[in-house]
TrEMBL record:
GO biological process, one term: cell division
Name assigned to this protein: Tol-Pal system protein TolQ
Gene that encodes it: tolQ
Originating organism: Arenimonas fontis
Family listed: Belongs to the ExbB/TolQ family.
UniProt keyword terms in alphabetical order: Cell cycle, Cell division, Cell inner membrane, Cell membrane, Membrane, Transmembrane, Transmembrane helix
Source taxonomy: Bacteria, Pseudomonadati, Pseudomonadota, Gammaproteobacteria, Lysobacterales
Topological type in the membrane: Multi-pass membrane protein
Length: 255
C-alpha cells in the first residue's frame, strides 16, 4: 500500500518556476553577450598584432576604394563630355587648341586626341613625308598616351588585390596563434573545461573573422574596378582607331 502515495506524488502536475526566479538566469544570459572590444583587449599579443595589421589593411583598402570611385566616375564623365564635343562637328584644330591649353590638365580621350593630333601636325610641317608616315607617327603617339592613361587607371589596384587575397591567410595565422596559446595554457592545468578553452578559441576565431571582413570588400572592389578599367580601355582604343581613320581620310584628301 505504500506505493499509492508515491504514484500520487509522481502524477502531480509540474508547476512553472516563478517569474522572479527565472529573472536572474535571463539576466545572466544577457550579461554573457560577446564583447568584441573586451575580447580584443584580452587577446594574446600575437593575435593583437595580427588584428591591428588587418585593420590597417582594411583602412588602406577603403581609402583606395573611395579614391578609385572618384577617379573612374570622373574619367567616364570626361570621356562622355569630350566625345560629345568631338562628334559635334567642331573643327579639329580648334579642339586641339582647347586640349593643349597649358592652364588645364587633360586626361583620357582628350589626352589621346591631343597627343595624336600634335604628332600629326608636327609631321605635316616636315617636307618629304607622305601621309602614311604622318599617320603612323600619330598612331604611335596615341598608343603611348593610351598606355599611360590605362596605367593611371590601374594605379593602386595591385595593392587592393594583394590585401584582398592575403587578408584571409593573415587571419588564419592569428587563428593558429590563438589556438597555440590556448593549448599551451591548458598544458599547465590539471583538468580542462570549456570555460578554460572558450576565451582562446574565441580570440582565434575573431582573427579569422577580421581577415574575412577585410578581404571581402577588397576583392569585390578589385573585380569591380578591373571591369571598369577594361571598359574604359576599350573605349579609349576604339576612339584612337576612329581618330586614325579620320586622319587617314584627311591625309588622302590633302594628297
Amino acid at each position: 500500500m505504500s506505493l499509492v502515495p508515491a504514484l500520487i506524488h509522481a502524477a502531480a502536475p509540474v508547476t512553472e518556476l516563478p517569474a522572479d526566479a527565472a529573472a536572474p538566469a535571463a539576466a545572466e544570459a544577457v550579461g554573457q553577450t560577446l564583447n568584441y572590444l573586451e575580447l580584443m583587449l584580452h587577446a594574446s599579443l600575437p593575435v593583437k598584432v595580427i588584428v591591428l595589421l588587418l585593420l590597417a589593411g582594411s583602412l588602406v583598402s577603403w581609402v583606395i576604394i573611395f579614391l578609385k570611385v572618384r577617379v573612374y566616375s570622373r574619367a567616364t564623365d570626361e570621356a562622355d563630355e569630350f566625345e560629345s564635343r568631338f562628334w559635334s562637328g567642331v573643327d579639329l584644330t580648334q579642339l586641339y587648341r582647347a586640349a593643349s591649353d597649358r592652364n588645364r590638365v587633360v586626361s583620357g580621350l582628350e589626352a589621346i586626341f591631343e597627343a595624336g593630333f600634335r604628332e600629326y601636325a608636327r609631321l605635316r610641317q616636315k617636307k618629304g613625308l607622305d601621309g602614311r608616315t604622318q599617320l603612323e607617327g600619330a598612331q604611335r603617339a596615341m598608343r603611348a598616351t593610351f598606355a599611360r592613361e590605362v596605367d593611371r587607371l590601374e594605379h593602386h589596384l595591385e595593392l587592393l588585390a594583394n590585401i584582398g587575397s592575403t587578408a584571409p591567410y593573415v587571419g588564419l595565422v592569428g587563428t593558429v596563434f590563438g589556438i597555440m596559446v590556448t593549448m599551451h595554457g591548458l598544458s599547465t592545468e590539471q583538468s580542462a573545461s570549456i570555460a578554460a578553452v572558450a576565451p582562446g578559441i574565441s580570440e582565434a576565431l575573431f582573427a579569422t573573422a577580421i581577415g574575412l571582413f577585410v578581404a571581402i570588400p577588397a576583392v569585390w572592389a578589385y573585380n569591380r574596378f578591373a571591369n571598369r578599367v577594361e571598359r574604359l580601355s576599350v573605349r579609349y582604343e576604339t576612339f584612337a582607331e576612329e581618330f586614325s581613320s579620320i586622319l587617314q581620310r584627311q591625309s588622302h584628301i590633302e594628297e
